[in-house]
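SAMPLE LOG
Freezer: B-3
Tube label: C17
Construct: single chain, 78 aa
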Amino acid sequence: MSVLDLSERTGLAINTIRKAEKTNGPVEVTAASARLLQTTLEAAGVIFIPADQQGAGVRLESLDQEPLRRRRDKRPAS
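STRUCTURE (predicted):
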């Protein structure tokens, strides 16, 4: 899923998503935005793995999962 796709699905600004992506630790976005990103990604089949001795992580729910389709179809220019 691209940043643009995630922005369309969450309604968050692209800059907000990029800000959340750029850090490898606590995100620099509001708690509400972080929850919205997490729930949207979980609905798309991403599993968030809690931190343990090896750290936190993510994985896909299923390797056979179909890729998400864009919400908005790009229409060819006339």
